[in-house]
Amino acid sequence: MTLRYDLGEVITAMITPFDNERAVDYKALEKIVRHLLNQNTDAIVVAGTTGESPTLTFDEEYEMLYCTKSVTSGQCKVIMGAGSNSTDTAVSSAKKAQELGADAILSVVPYYNKPSQKGLIEHFGTIAKSVDIPIILYNIPSRTGIDMAPETIAFLAKEYSNIVAVKQSNANLDLVSEIKMLAPDDFTIYCGDDSLTLPMLSLGAHGVVSVASHVVGNEIKSMIHNFKSGQVIPAQNMHKILYPLFKKLFFAPNPTPIKALLSKLGIVENYVRRPLVEVEMAQGIELLDILNDVVNKLNN
After folding, report:
1. What whole-number distance in Å separates Cα of residue 181 and Cα of residue 158?
2. Residue 128, CB-side half-sphere exposure with 13 Å CA sphere
């Protein structure tokens, strides 16, 4: 089946590195982008939730997009987190992302003001009409306070050709089936939770927008490829090996665990912006132990 727009199977929701004064560390950003290219990520999300977008300025987000585009040099897609709970702001961000060369945007369901399903249609329809680049809807009710219904997602997918996918961060797997039944065949579903990637694949999801792919991107891609090629048992075995890491990366608010782990690996410094706080050193060591256990199991 041909997808409306193929952004790949493993999309990394990239962290934003900060220095000890909690300013964006652009040299470290270049380093993490190169690291993700070595993990064979298909696309990178700049300034998403994992990138601590609520605490970033627009100027920082746009500079990060420019920097990421420069380092990737076309080796993978670059997606801009350009959502807002203000439709006008979301439109402005989407236009700027298009102007700066983003391959697509990730647009979150408006948070806090809790619009109706009709309001969601108006919101995303306005964004879709303002730009030509592909749009990924981002449904994450645990953060936004509302759930975008499958009927709403399907309507938007049918009405706007540049609404190409949804990042579905909802543990109710029945909703994936409903989206698949209602939306056009070329519309893409991405899992928004690493631990649910394999179950969602079985229901027709194309891939995952991942946090764990910062450190096990190749392994996640192997799991997806095995499943899609009919090698179900190897895919299940990989899921079982990765599952403890998937879960531990969310024992505290994202992205504090993945930043602690990347710090232990010497890739970035372990700084987050307030109101988030860094996880304790002992917890970072525990994360590294889990990752090492994953590596050992893969090598045996």
Report:
1. 13
2. 20
Which residue type is seen at 193?
A: D
pTM equals: 0.97
Sign of the four-CA dihedral 26, 70, 34, 279 = positive
Q: Which is catalytic among the residues 69, 77, 96, 167?
A: 167
- Segment 228-257, tens digit of pLDDT: 999 999 999 999 999 999 999 999 999 999
pLDDT value, residue 300: 81
- Name every residue whose Cβ is closer than 8 Å to that of residue 91 and which is 6 or more positions away in sequence: 126, 127, 130
pLDDT at 281 (0 to 100): 84
62 is catalytic: no
Average pLDDT over residues 19-48: 97
Which of 138, 221, 248, 259 does the annotation list as catalytic?
Answer: 138
The one-letter amino acid at 169: S
In 3D space, the residue among 135, 195, 148, 142 whose CA is nearest the CA of residue 175 turns out to be 148
167 catalytic? Reply is yes
Which domains does the chain show, CATH number per domain? 10-231 (3.20.20.70)
